[in-house]
Amino acid sequence: MRWTWPFDGRARHGLNKGDGTDADSARPDFLCVGVHKGGTTWLYQQLDAHPDFWMPPLKELHYFDQLSRVRRSSSPRCKDERDRRFLELINNLSVKPYIDFEHYARLFEPKGPLLSGDISPNYSTLSTKVIRRIVAYFPKLKVIFLARDPVERVWSHLSMEVHYHQIESFDVTDVDEVNRNLLRRGLLLRSYPSAVVARWKRYVRPERFRIYFFDDLEKNPTELRRSILEFLGADPNKETSRVAADYNSWGSRAKLPLTDKVRSHLAQFFKKELKTCAARLGGAARDWPGRYGFSLLLFSSVLLWMTA
Known about the structure:
Layout lengths: L29 E3 L7 H9 L14 H4 L14 H14 L6 H6 L10 E3 L8 H10 L4 E6 L2 H14 L11 H8 L2 H5 L3 H9 L7 E5 H6 L1 H12 L27 H10 L1 H10 L7 H4 L5 H11 L1
Parallel strand pairs: 1-2, 1-3, 3-4
């Protein structure tokens, strides 16, 4: 669901908080806005283990989509005073019935001189109105989007929901049963990366927006980690012994079995999106249509003609 929370009318677009303090002294340095099952857990683990970062004790803040009013499957980290301070602030903030940018920014006071940010894949569903206000208030914000082949992503998402009993188990070989789960609005909103990227790129300056691909996480996580750290302004050469670059706590979880028939059905369902991603996102997305036997040549020609 896309929320349309009201905003605090006192917000001053990040220029000055009105209390004599510099808004830059407490703010997120970046947002990761998705996608679900695209590597956001891996990203949080990598940044949390890096000495240039202090990451919130909650991986997903869910502030701009649900005002942090979410049921969490596990207790948040609370190992020191910074964590306790953050949890106190976010609990107080979640009581308010509107988006309060000033006090959201103050959530990041515990980071001090380190880097920090909000990794909430649900932000892929935000409306343009909310995105515009976020970027206006935090003009220096960097934004990361982790993209994944829509067919693979949606199957991984369904597998996760069944694993955690968020939906009932279903006959994964039955196309009608697959469609019943696929056509839920909440799932579809998260399944069109080209639309998500278009909404955010409309307001975020090009040098502050980066698309990374789950494909690269699978092929070369070390290089992907380096690229992201450099973009965020961290030192990729600093070592950490806590988490290897290829560590992913969800990577070993079994997915639902995917038959050739269902895979072909999903590919046809996302055919247009696969080709749109290949043409507009570039990078690893260029290979997505070919996985399912789709040619990109004609579609690319049409796009070039439309944008000429």
